[in-house]
Amino acid sequence: MATSLDLEEQEQLDALKHFWNRWGSLISWLLVVVLAAFAGWNGWQYWQNRQAGYAVALYEALQDAAESGNAARVQQAFSDLKDQYGGTTYAAQGALLAGKTLLDQGKTAEGKAALAWAADKAATPGLQALARLRLAAVLMGEKAYDAALQQLAWSFPQAFAALAADRRGDILLQQGKKNEALTEYGKAYQGLGVSGGGYQRAVAAKLAALGIDPDAGAAAGATAASAASTQGAAS
After folding, report:
1. Mean predicted confidence (pLDDT) in 26-38
2. Which residues contact 196 (CB under 8 A, 6 or more apart)?
């Protein structure tokens, strides 16, 4: 009986040795790859968390500078934030805050530069959209209408499309292009929908001030533009 068990154990050991001789090297390499990937992932997570921590500290420094109205410190904190941690959302949020603060402090060129950076480099399309909307408003205030419209020609995410249309309407109206402005206001009104709340009512007021039934929205704008074109051709 003992001899039988010894033979069975020997056969099992021989089978194991054969299996290991055939597949042991591959299994070892697979273990090395898995462990390396796991270690790399942990290292990446650690690095990401560390980067985020540094970015938060700089963003908080920027906030403090903005609250105190110290434009020089705002510029320095934002410069460090975008140069060292430009791929984080904190850098984009810092750009929006720096842009507002610097503009409020009369540093127009620096404020526009911060917004322009966010418009091109922000980590998310939503933050890019906010930067473009704010930059377009600044340019409109400077009567740089073509430059403002260029910012608004960007492909905005759906959540911001109506806001961009409203701003285009404002710019076109200031350019004296009433019918084109009506079309954009109509897009904004329809795009905002009932969930737009106060913002939709503001757009409705613009349409009403221009003699358009807000509920007609984009259709009214298109009709007005078509009528103007027909009158122009007749004259």
Report:
1. 53
2. 162, 203
Per-residue HEC secondary structure of the chain comes to CHHHHHHHHHHHHHHHHHHHHHHHHHHHHHHHHHHHHHHHHHHHHHHHHHHHHHHHHHHHHHHHHHHHCCHHHHHHHHHHHHHHHCCCHHHHHHHHHHHHHHHHCCCHHHHHHHHHHHHHHCCCHHHHHHHHHHHHHHHHHCCCHHHHHHHHCCCCCHHHHHHHHHHHHHHHHHCCCHHHHHHHHHHHHHHHCHHHHHHHHHHHHHHHHCCCCHHHHHHHHHHHHHHHHHHHHHC
Rounded to the nearest 10 degrees, the angle between the axes of helix 217-234 and helix 178-192 is 160
Which positions ≥6 away from 159 have C-beta within 8 Å?
Answer: 126, 129
Domains and CATH numbers, the chain: 32-123 (no CATH), 129-229 (1.25.40)
Among 165, 156, 161, 155, CA closest to 203: 165
CA 190 – CA 217 distance, rounded (Å): 6
Q: What's the rounded Cα separation, in Å, for the pair 123 and 39?
A: 27
C-beta separation of 161 from 169 below 8 A: no
Q: Provide the token pair at 109.
A: 């060129």
For 33-51, what is the mean pLDDT? 47
pLDDT band at 28 (very low <50, low <70, confident <90, very high): low
The whole-angstrom separation of Cα 214 and Cα 209 is 10
Q: Rounded to two decimals, what is the model's pTM? A: 0.70
Residue 192 has a pLDDT of 86
